[in-house]
Amino acid sequence: MMDFQTIASKFQVKGTFIFGEPFGCGHINDTYVLYFKREFEHPLRYIVQRINHEIFKDVPALMKNIDAVTSFLDKKVTEAGGDPAREVLKIVKTTDDQLFYHDEDGSYYRAYVFVDDAVCLQRIEQPEHFYQSAKAFGRFQKRLSDFPAETLTETIPDFHNTRARYEAFLAAVDADLAGRRASVQKEIDFVKARAQDTGVLLDLLASGQIPLRVTHNDTKLNNVLLDIATGNGICVIDLDTVMPGLAHYDFGDSIRFGASSAAEDETDLSKVFMRLDLFELFCKGFLEECGKNLTQTEIDFLPFGAKLMTFECGMRFLTDYLNGDTYFKIHRPDHNLDRCRTQFTLVLDMEKKYDEMMSIVKRCQADCR
């Protein structure tokens, strides 16, 4: 067990430590909530995380990214008359004024001020939740639209470099480390048939047709805090993967995860399709917030971003399956293959509905003018 009191003593917290306990459902970092009492005032809570430095190998650069982005957002929210205490994550520095604490055992810790009267949901309980997440991520894009994205470090290099992901897939096919290649030839052919898709957005970036932006890169519903009283999305959290990227990454991953009719690992593929109603709802919220900050080319390629992020994710699941399930945690035999097939089924459905997706984007853009 973590020595909560010792860890708490390393940060500039207010009040007297009471107790700490595990918090949330994260799969990468270890997250805890710590409680502190104050005389004549309500107790305070802080989030403390032990950062997984096996995944995030350059913790100083990661924390420098988060500090730069949250400081920038704080100014934007303040200028707009908002409440940065609720709308932006606030890093609590260590007693020696550092962004993280590195203990003698090699572990890295950081602390944030706990945002009260807010909740993050693990699944969409009603469509309004998805709409609010769209507005929150769109607002995130808008507020960071003039941030110099090139100054951020890639916390996970080539995270959404789909061309590099494709090369890793081909290497996994050739190596066939787990002896599974023959059993997934259909899925291998599916990926190879779409090889040209992997470079489309990267080529647009290289030619200057779309800009480099600050992207969150993990735009699931549970990375948005919703205000308990109003239900509005107020704060984007989990900033570990904030780095240079394309707006299509954030938009596309939201659609991949949130507009699917089924779970990511559904085995009955007849249940898997992309819900156009949820696609439209997310488009509406996203473009209401950042539509005027995106270029026309960026907007035109939003449906492609949804397809590409879904394709990339499926390809990563297939790559890991071929390699013997060494990256993604599995909970049953062929779990990664099931995940892969679900993503590819979504891709096929998006291809069938692509013209409708384009029409929805144009309609949402027109409504936001």
UniProtKB/TrEMBL annotation:
Sequence ranges assigned to domain Aminoglycoside phosphotransferase in this UniProt record: 23-259
SUPFAM superfamilies named in the record: Protein kinase-like (PK-like) (SSF56112)
Source species, domain of life: Bacteria
PANTHER family per record: AMINOGLYCOSIDE PHOSPHOTRANSFERASE DOMAIN-CONTAINING PROTEIN-RELATED, SLR1880 PROTEIN
Protein name: Aminoglycoside phosphotransferase family protein
Organism: Merdimmobilis hominis
Taxonomic lineage: Bacteria, Bacillati, Bacillota, Clostridia, Eubacteriales
